[in-house]
Amino acid sequence: MNDMDCPRAGDLRLLIVDDSPEDAEIHARMLRLAWPGRVTVWTAALGEDGLALLREDVPDCVLLDHNLPDMTSLEFLAEAGAACAVIVMTGLGDEELVVQTLHAGAQDYMIKGRVTAGELSRDVDRAIEKFRLQRDLSDSREQMAAILSSVDDAVLSLNPDCRPLYVNGTAHEHLGITVGEPLPGWLCLTPLHAAVTAVLGGAERQLVEFSDGQRWFDARVHPSPGGVTVVMRDVTRQRLERERLRLLESVTVTARDAVVIAEAEPVTYPGPRVVYVNRSFTEMTGYTPEDILGQTPRILQGPQSDRRVLDRIRDNLKRWRPSDETLLNYTKAGTPFWVNLSIMPVADETGWYTHWISVQRDVTVQVRRTMLDQARRDVLEFTATGRALEDSLDVICHLLSSSLPGHAATVWVRSDHELHMRAASGDLPEQLRVDYTGSGSTVDLRQQRGVIHRAVHDARDVIVPDLLAPGVQLYEGMHALLVQHGLRSLWTVPLPASDGSGIIGVLSLVGNRPGTPDHEEAALLREVVDLTVTLLERFDAQAQLQRLALYDSLTGLPNRALYLEHLRRALGDASRAGEQLAVGLLDLNRFKQVNDTLGHSAGDDLLRQVGQRLRAALRPSDVLARMGGDEFTLMLPYRDRDRFEAGIARRLHEVFRDPFTVAGQPVFVSGSLGLALAPLHSLEPETLLSQADMAMYEAKRAGRPMGVFDTHAQINPQLVSLEADLHRALPQQELELHYQGIYRAGVREVAAAEALLRWRHPDRGLVNPDEFIGLAETNGLIVPIGAWVLREACRQAAAWQAQQPGLSVNVNLSARQFWQPDLPEVVLDALNSSRLSPHLLTLEITESVLLDVPDAAQTLGALHALGVRLSLDDFGTGYSSLSYLHRLPLHGLKIDRSFIRDLGQAQGVAENIIRAVMLLAHTLNLHVTTEGIELEAQAGFVEALGGDHLQGYLLARPLPAADFERQVLTPNQSTELHVDPLKPTALH
Question: What is the DSSP string of 681-708?
C-alpha cells in the first residue's frame, strides 16, 4: 500500500479507492478546493487495501472505482456492508450497472471526467445525508419491529385484499398468521372479518370481541395507509376472572365480615385499586362502593395507624405472601376502630396473581380488653415491685389513649382540697400539661370552678360533647386553649373511693373529634376507673406501709432502720470532710413504773410527748429516732467537743425539767443519755451504738443524766461469767425447746408449733432469752445451738405426726446462721435425720437477715429448693422493703406484736397498718400470722380482716414439749391438718 496517503485532521474524511493515481489525485484536489482546510483524504489503489482502511477507521464517504484490479465495486460493497456513504465511479453511463450498485448499498454514482469540483462536493454531501437518513430509517424499522414483536398483543397489517403485510411474533405463534398468506379460515368467520371490511370501506376504528371456541379476544381495527392495522388481545383470563368475581360477590355480599377485593398491582404507592367491597364493609367503615371503588385501601389509614404493621403488610404484598395483622383504621367520619386484617393473594389457573382479597373483622372490643388486661398486669407488677405511683398512672394514661385513639388522658389525684396532675398521655400538647387548669398542674377545689371541680363536687361524669357547640362555658381561658390545639370534646370522670368515703381523683380526657362515649367506651371507662381506684388505694396502703418501714408508728420519729441509714451516710460524709459526730442512746428512767401504774396507753402518750420535746430541743441538723421501748437514738454533728457536751447537757435538762401530763396528771421522768464519738471511738454504726449503750448504762448506774463512752471502762464480770456458762450449756444438755401453738384464724385449730429456745441454768434457773441469745450471736455459739434447735424441732414434729398429722413446726434462724455457707446442708440433715417432710418445716427469718447478709437471697433460694417454707418474722419493725416480698421465695410473714398492742390508739394508725399489710401480703399470695394476740377483741379484728393464723397468750403460752402435747394436742383434735396448714385461707 505504497500509494496510500496518510490522512490529516479535518472536518470531513473521505476515502478514494481507485487504481488510477491521476484520477485519485484529481478528485482529492477537487475536494480540497471545495472544503479548504476542512477535509481529510486518503487513497487506496486496491479493493482489499480500501476495505482494510475502512475497517480501521470508517470515513464519512468512499469514492469507489467500479473496475479495480482485484475486485469490482459490487464485490467491495458486499464486503464493506453499510458502513458509510459510497459513490461509485464509472467510466461509462451504464444504467444497468447503476441500478445494481444502488441495490448493493451505494448512495450515488458518477461518470469520471464529467464532474466539476462543485458538483463533486454536492454529490458527496447528498450521499452522506442519504446514508444517514437510510440508517436512521433502518434503525427505526428495527426498533419498531422489536417493540411489536415483544408485546403480548397480536399485531398485523392487512392490505385491501385482507392479506397480511406485517405480522408480529405473537400473531404468528399464537394465531398461525403468516405474511403473504391468507388469514386462517376460522378468523374469517368471526366478527373480526366484518370489522376489517367496514374499515376498508371507510368506517372509523372498530372494536369487536370474538372467540375461537376456547379463547376470547378483544380486537381493535384501525385504518392505515394501504389497508388496515389489527391489534388483538387474548382476554380469556380476564373474562374468567370476572366470572369468578361475580360468583365470589354472591358469597361475600351476605358475609358478616367486611370483604375487600383489590387488583394485584401496584403493591407500592399508591397501592392496589379496590374493585369490590361488600355491604358489611360499608356498615363497618361508612364508605359506600361509590366512595371506595377505584381507590386504594390506604384511605382507611389515619394518623395513629401503626407504621410498623403497615410496613409488614407492604413487605408481604411485595413478596406475594398472606398477611394477618391487627391495625387501627378510621371510618369515613374519622372514628378510629381496631380491625383484624386477613389478606390473601388470588392467582389464576396459570399461577399468575391477579387480585388481593382482604377479610376484615372489627376487633375493637377485643383489643380494648387485651389492653385493659395488660394494664392490670403492669399495674400489679409495678405495685408489687415498689415502682413509683407515676409509673403506674402512666400505664393508665397509655391505656386510655391507646384504647380511645384521638383522646389524650390525664390523671388527677386528690390531696385534701387540691387535685394534682400526676400523669398525662404522651401525646397531650405540652402547653396543656402546664396550663390545663389555668393554674398549672393543680386544681384548688375551694375556688369552685371548672369541670374538674364540678365532677368532684357532684360525684358524676361531666361530658362536654362538642367544644364548638353554642353555649359551652368553661372557666376563663380553658375553652380557647382547648380549641387552639384542635380539641373538640372533654370528658371528665371522677374516681370514687371504694369505701364510699368520697372522690380520690379524676380522669380527664380531651378528644380531637366531637362526641360522647358510646356504650362500649363508657364500659371501658368504668373498668379503668375501677382499676385506677384500686391502684391509688393500694399505693396509699403501701405509703402507710413504707412509713411504717421507716418511721415509728407511735411517735412518728424515724425507726432504727432509717436511723442507721442516716448514720451510715453521715459517717461517710464526716470521714471525708474530717467532721465529728456524736451517736447518742437515751433511755427513760421510771418509764416502767408509769407503764405499770397508769397503763400502756399512758406509757405510749408519755413516749409521744418525750419525742416531741426532744425534737423541739434539737437542731435541724440533728437526727432523732426511736429504737423501741423507751429508748431513743440521736445523731449529733459537732465541732467543739466541750461546747457540744455542755450544750447537749443543757438541752437535756430543759427537756425533762417540767412534768409531762399523762392520764390527766403531772408525771416527772428523766432520761439517761450515753454518747459515743466518731471518729474518736469508732466509725462503725453498730459499734458506736453499742458504745453509746454502755455509756448510757454507766450514766444510769452512776445517777448522771449523761455519759460519754470510756474506752478504759471495766468489762462486766457478770457478762463474762454468763458467756463462759453458755459455752457449756449445749454439751451439758441445759438447753431445751418450748413450743407455742399457731392457730388457724376463724376455726381456732392448731396448725403449727413455734419452737422457742430456753436455757435452764443449773444455778440461775431459766435464763431470759434476751440475756443469752444476743450473747450467743456475738460469740458465734448461735451456729451450733441453731443446728441443735433445727434437729430437735424436726425430731419432735416428726414424733407428733402420729398424734397430729400435718402439724408443722416453725424455727427461727438468726442472721449469724445465714453467714454460714452450709446452712442448707444443716437444714437438710435435720430433715433427713428426723424423716420430717420438708413442707412441715417453716423457717422464720427477720428483716435484718435480708439487710445485713449479702447473699441472703441465694441462701433463701437454696432453702426453698429443699421444699421447706420461709416466713418473714417481726414484719414492720425493720426496713420493711416491699421489693423483697416480691422477689424472694417467701410463703408468709408475721406481723409484729407491737401493732396488735397499739390497736385502738393513735387515730387508728395500727388498724390501718395491719389492714395494709394484710392487703399487700394476700395480693402477693403470702399467708399472714399475727402474733401477740392476748385479747378476744384483737383476735376478732384480725379474723375480720381475713388473717390466716393467730399466735398469742389468748390461745396458748409457750410450753415444754410434754405439756404442749398434753394441753394442745388433744386426742380429739381435727385431722383436717392433712391440708396445707400454712396456705392462706383467702385472698383479699
Answer: T-S-HHHHHHHHHHHHHHHHHHT-SEEE
Has residue 857 got a pLDDT over 90? no
In total, the chain counts a number of residues equal to 988
Q: Give the alpha-carbon dihedral of 768, 772, 773, 775, to 10 degrees.
A: 150
Q: Which residue has the cell 393464723?
A: 949
Measure Cα distances from 105 to 67, 81, 177, 342 in Å. 17, 7, 32, 66
CB-CB contact of 920 with 545 (8 Å): yes
Helices (H), 821-855: 823-834, 847-852
Rounded CA-CA distance 671/652 in Å is 8
476: its cell numbers? 376563663
> Peptide bond preceding 182: is omega within 30 degrees of 0, i.e. cis?
no
Phi, psi of 52 (to 5 degrees): -65, -45
Closest by CA to 912, choosing from 657, 544, 470, is 544
**Hey, what amino acid is at 843?**
L
Name the CA radius of gyration of the chain, rounded: 52
How high does pLDDT run on average in the chain? 84
pLDDT at 974 over 50: no
pLDDT above 50 for 5: no
What pLDDT, in 10s, does the model give residues 193-210?
A: 888 888 888 888 888 888
**CA dihedral of residues 869, 874, 879, 885 (deg, nearest 10):** 30
Neighbours of 155 (CB within 10 A): 18
Give the integer Cα–Cα distance in Å for 307 and 309.
5
Distance of CA 752 to the CA centre of its chain: 45
Burial of 190 (0-12, 13-18, 19+ CB in 10 A): middle
Q: For 268-324, write each residue's pLDDT tens digit.
A: 778 789 988 888 899 999 999 999 898 888 889 888 888 898 889 888 888 888 989
Nearest CA among 599, 682, 434, 409 for reference residue 521:
409
Q: Identify the structural domains of the chain with CATH numbers, from first to last.
A: 12-143 (3.40.50.2300), 151-234 (3.30.450.20), 269-362 (3.30.450.20), 367-548 (3.30.450.40), 570-714 (3.30.70.270), 735-978 (3.20.20.450)
CA distance 928 to 452: 41
Closest by CA position to 522, among listed 503, 538, 535, 507? 507
